[in-house]
Amino acid sequence: MAHFACINDDNIVQQVIVVANDDCGGGNFPESEPIGQAFIASLGIEGRWLQTSFSGSFRHQYAGIGCYYNALSDAFTTEPVDAAD
To answer: Does residue 54 lie within any of the structural domains?
Structure first.
């Protein structure tokens, strides 16, 4: 199973969903991310979706609701992202 986090315009995680590996090209990041994003869009679910790792093996940590996404470091964090980042 792959996990995808919906990020708002302030880079705050609003929702996390699970996508079957079969629906995102096997679930192996980073190749699976655009396939999973296309699958989510095909369901009519809008938003900016980024793949997150339940084990924290990529993007620093699991993206729980209320976490922040830092685009410069391509990582999720519990700390707010500085506007300069």
So the answer is: yes
In a domain, 83, yes or no: no
Q: How far apart are CA 58 and CA 51, in angstroms?
A: 9
Structurally, the chain folds into a number of domains equal to 1
For residue 43, the enclosing domain spans: 2-77
Smallest CA-to-CA distance from 23 within 43, 7, 5 is with 43
Give yes or no for a contact between 64 and 77, defined as CB atoms under 8 angstroms apart: no
Q: What is the pLDDT of residues 18-57, one digit of tens each?
A: 999 999 999 899 999 999 999 999 999 999 999 999 999 9
DSSP state of 13: E
Q: Nearest CA to 36 among 28, 24, 53?
A: 24
